[in-house]
Design goal:
This protein has four helices and nine strands. The protein has helices at about 15-30, 50-55, 110-120, 175-180; strands spanning about 10-15, 35-45, 60-70, 80-85, 95-105, 125-130, 145-150, 155, 170-175. It has a six-stranded mixed β-sheet with strand order 4-3-2-5-6-7. A three-stranded antiparallel β-sheet has the order 1-9-8. α1 (about 15-30) crosses α2 (about 50-55). The radius of gyration is 17 Å and the shape is globular. The structure holds 1-O-pyrophosphono-5-O-phosphono-alpha-D-ribofuranose.
């Protein structure tokens, strides 16, 4: 049987640590939106595990939806646009929207996404991210709910991939450099 940790340098956050932090964030969201309904939106695909754990623990009326986005090929560093591969299934006018991401890296994805969603007249939008890598930020953007700050290392697992692998690891892990050092950078 293949050792699915063979390419892993170290475990950065265990599934248990992630669960504990997710419970805290869900409690914070439950408090912040007391008496209100929320639409929780998972950004496919990286956010799915965190999203599933989180929504189960939000003690409010929760609607769920999903979006898939990718960054446009031709773009400059300062303004990257996103392509919507799958849009929301419903209008968001008047709703409290919580966008759930696995990681905020350069910040371009969320910045573009927020710009788009605000044009649809929601009541509010907040960003909830499991991981934040502030050292990589290229635009001004902060998560409203953030699980963990991570160093500038190649992280995989708990939804995060490298070339579509490792998403199913139950921990957030640092990938061995040897796995990606000869590859063309995937951004
Ligand atoms: C990742 C992640 C965010 C985005 C963050 O998605 O899930 O959506 O990149 O990067 P940024 O802050 O630099 O914009 P990815 O495009 O890898 O898709 P995936 O979730 O399907 O892996």
């Amino acid at each position: 049987m293949k050792d699915r940790y063979a390419d892993i340098k170290k475990v950065l956050l265990t599934g248990e640590e992630i669960s504990k932090r997710t419970t805290e964030i869900a409690a914070e969201i439950t408090r912040d939106y007391a008496g209100e309904e929320v639409l929780v939106v998972a950004i496919l695909r990286g956010a799915v595990m965190f999203f599933a754990e989180l929504v189960k623990q939000i003690d409010l009326d929760v609607r769920m939806d999903f979006m898939a986005v990718s960054s446009y090929g031709a773009s400059t560093v300062s303004s990257k646009e996103i392509k919507i591969n799958k849009d929301l299934a419903q209008p968001i006018e008047g709703l409290n929207v919580i966008i759930v991401e696995d990681i905020i890296d350069t910040g371009h994805t969320l910045k573009s996404l927020l710009r788009l969603l605000w044009t649809r007249n929601p009541k509010s939008i907040k960003v909830c991210a499991l991981l934040d890598k502030p050292s990589r930020r290229e635009v001004e953007l902060e998560g409203d709910y953030v699980g963990f700050e991570v160093p500038n290392e190649f992280v995989v697992g708990y939804g995060l991939d490298y070339n579509e692998k490792y998403r199913n690891l139950p921990d957030v892990c640092v990938l061995k450099e040897s796995v990606y050092k000869n590859d063309i950078p995937v951004v």
